[in-house]
Design goal:
The structure holds two protein chains of two kinds. Helix content of chain A is 7%, strand content 26%. The two termini of chain A are 24 Å apart. By secondary structure, chain A is mainly β. Chain A has a single domain, classed as Beta-grasp domain (Ubiquitin-like (UB roll), Roll). In chain A, strand 3 and strand 4 form a beta hairpin. Chain A has a five-stranded mixed β-sheet, with no helix packed on it. The longest helix of chain A is centred in the middle third of the chain and has 7 residues. Chain B is α+β, with helices and mostly antiparallel strands. In chain B, strand 10 and strand 11 form a beta hairpin. The radius of gyration of chain B is 22 Å and the shape is globular. Classes of the chains: A mainly beta, B alpha+beta. Chains A and B meet through strand 3 and strand 4 of A and helix 7, helix 8, helix 9 and helix 17 of B.
Chain lengths: 94, 576
């Protein structure tokens, strides 16, 4: 089962520059190279400072959170973010 | 002219200005309302009887150039909770009172008979005017009439049809800068307290007002500059930031993703349908329709999280659709249509009801089988029952708990009789601790534990961890202090992260009061307010047993995390 990715707001434009509407963009990722959340960012050329909230399976997570097949990963852009990453209690695996 | 108290006796329709007592000189907002209520209202009195009082108080810096500071507190004994209540709103009305150097309005007594009155306050004095012609009418039309009759520069406070029913979901309504009846001190049924006294409206005209006295202009100016710098640089509060771009409803997708957005009367914490009513969706619709976003609820606000929602044709403005309102009238009722939510919010404003209590009430009515979950048009018809003052409408107007009991619902999401706001305590436990322990009844603004947990501001917390007592306590103290200051609670996002911003707040308060406050004084100020409120509630009959969440939160697992609220009772009892 692939990883389910949800991109919110302007992060959707990283995949589809002409995206319209407001619903999150849903993607399925089946890529054996992906081990961490940061790998997902790299795959879509998203910089860490462009991301505010990360959720893995509905739990707060950081860039160094391991992801597995079947996980759901949600990424929110900076301009929808209300948190500072250094304050955020994130689930990290490394 | 020194700051004054306006005491209004509704029994004999008399009023008088009194000197502000010396020990009230440093009070404002919630500090003022709770102090007066605790001192003058018998805790065991009937909230709708002659002994209760309704107190209006602008904050300490309200009416000054301090940014984002147009807040007003309304206090009394709540007919919804049976305890002390402070509800607050941002409105030009607050700034007018402050500029007139009115530290508090105390409404007392109770007018005999069926007449309703309008109280007009100017620098020349007060006047009582019969208001019967507006009884039974919606507030959108009435506020238009009032501005036409009294001039477009006045400020208006009023109560609607729900308050005429003495409904415990009724709020006290204030005008926004466009004159819409959309700014509410909504929680706790204080609208019913106002109506019970025979008072329907208060009109203020601050023409000729001297303005707020500032004891030390230099310290004040230095303080507000620091605060302004913090607000304009913090990602949450700055222009183009999350609140400014999307409003509070930016939280819909975030809390839904976290599994903490209650759906279908708190039976699930997540639903894809919520994406259709997100802050992003709402902001785009407002832009498309020609509404207003961003928008300020009172002049001088930097954050400008407010907005004006309109119909698809760009007409019939409603006002702001806050996150909690969208949730209460939307996902909590399985309604995922912004137009239905907008019309429900319009009905709430028009009838004078708190949107959170109305949404919780509709949801338990749905669970009780009155209408189906998801039936937006049916929900609007239910609100019309209140408008028509039918027996069903009279039940609904009493709020979530009574409606739930009448319709045989056992899953009633209330604490101390007040409906829970838009955060499920099984997924976000710290907010559950605040819901359980605040003297206000379930109230997210009482201790914004959501801020460090979900928003990542001012702390490192795990939302699913049960160890929350200390955090909730400290946030409740901080919140009470901000509620007293006159600043909007949303400044907390910036000042919790930027020390200079907090220093600026303290300096601005010192400047107005001529005091030498320090950051270390903030906590004790808040604690003093909470202690006053807890003491009132204790005398009103509250015990630790009342500091508990409903049983179903402890027994029913909430999808998707499948957790229950498992904060031990001892931890809840250790908060205060």
């Amino acid at each position: 089962m692939p990883i389910a990715l949800k991109l919110f707001g302007d992060l959707r434009k990283k995949v589809d520059p002409k995206v319209s509407g407001t619903l999150p963009l849903r993607l399925k990722i089946d890529d054996p190279e992906i081990t961490w959340v940061s790998d997902i960012l790299r795959k879509f050329m998203i910089e860490e400072n462009e991301v505010s909230h990360i959720f893995v399976n509905g739990r707060f997570a950081g860039f160094r959170k391991k992801v597995s097949r079947g996980d759901t990963v949600a990424l929110f852009p900076k301009n929808m973010g209300l948190l500072y990453k250094w304050y955020f209690k994130r689930e990290e695996d490394e | 002219m020194p700051k004054r108290i306006l005491r209004v006796n509704m029994t004999n329709l008399e009023s008088q200005f009194e000197d502000l007592p010396a020990d009230y000189a440093a009070l404002g907002g919630r500090g003022m309302t709770s102090t007066i209520v605790a001192k003058e209202v018998p805790p065991t009195c009937n909230p709708l009887g002659i002994h209760n009082k309704l107190v209006f108080a602008p904050g300490i810096v309200t009416g000054t150039k301090a940014p984002t500071s147009g807040r007003l507190s309304v206090g009394g004994k709540s007919p919804l909770t049976g305890g002390i209540k402070e509800a607050n709103a941002g409105t030009p009305f607050a700034q007018m009172l402050a500029r007139m150097r009115i530290g508090a309005i105390i409404i007392e007594g109770k007018h005999a008979g069926d007449d309703y009155y309008l109280l007009k306050i100017t620098m020349d004095g007060t006047e009582f005017i019969k208001a019967n012609k507006w009884v039974g009418k919606g507030l959108y039309g009435v506020y238009k009439d009032l501005f036409k009759e009294y001039g477009d520069k006045v400020g208006i406070s009023g109560v609607g049809i729900a308050a005429e029913l003495l409904g415990a979901m009724s709020g006290v309504c204030f005008n926004d800068p466009e004159g819409l009846p959309s700014r509410y001190a909504g929680r706790g049924g204080l609208g019913a307290v106002m109506a019970s006294k025979g008072l329907k409206f208060i009109i203020v005209d601050d023409t000729g007002a001297p303005g707020v006295e500032i004891a030390n202009e230099e310290v004040f100016s230095q303080g507000i500059k620091k605060l302004r710098d913090a607000l304009t640089s913090h990602d949450v509060t700055k222009p183009g930031g999350a609140l400014n771009s999307y409003g509070t409803a930016v939280l819909v997708n975030i809390i839904n993703e976290a599994g903490g957005l209650p759906q279908r009367n708190f039976s699930s914490g997540q639903d894809e349908g919520a994406e259709k009513v997100s802050g992003e969706a709402k902001a785009e619709e407002i832009k498309k329709r020609g509404g207003t976003r961003p928008h300020f609820c009172n002049p001088g606000c930097i954050i400008q999280c407010s907005e004006v929602w309109v119909k698809p044709n760009g007409k019939d403005p409603v006002g702001v659709l806050e996150y909690e309102s969208v949730w209460a009238l939307g996902p909590n009722c399985a309604i995922y249509n912004l137009d239905d939510i907008g019309e429900l919010n319009r009905a709430c404003n028009d009838l004078g009801t708190d949107t959170i209590e109305a949404g919780d009430t509709i949801a338990v009515a749905m669970e009780g089988g009155l209408i189906e979950f998801g039936d937006g048009k049916g929900a609007i018809k239910l609100m019309d029952e209140i408008r028509k003052k039918t027996p069903i409408g009279k039940i609904l107007a009493q709020g979530t708990e009574i409606t739930g009991k009448v319709f045989g619902v056992t899953r009633i999401p209330t604490v101390k009789g007040q409906g829970l706001p838009a955060y499920d305590p099984r997924a976000i436990k710290g907010i559950g601790v605040t819901f359980a322990t605040t003297p206000m009844g379930a109230d997210h603004t009482a201790g914004y534990a959501i801020a460090p947990e979900i928003l990542g501001v001012g702390g490192k917390l795990d939302p699913l961890s049960p160890e929350k007592a200390e955090v909730s306590r400290n946030l409740q103290f901080a919140t009470a202090a901000i509620d007293a200051s006159g600043y909007c609670l949303f400044i907390a996002f910036a000042i919790l992260d930027i020390p200079e911003g907090l220093q600026g707040v303290v300096e601005s308060l010192s400047g107005v009061l001529g005091a030498n406050l320090t950051v270390d004084d903030v906590g004790p100020i808040g604690k003093s307010i909470i202690d006053t409120e807890l003491e009132f509630n204790k005398k009103a009959g509250f015990t630790k047993i009342h500091d508990r969440l409903p049983e179903f939160f402890l027994e029913e697992k909430l999808p998707p995390h499948n957790t229950v609220f498992d904060v031990p009772d001892d931890d809840l009892d250790s908060v205060f």
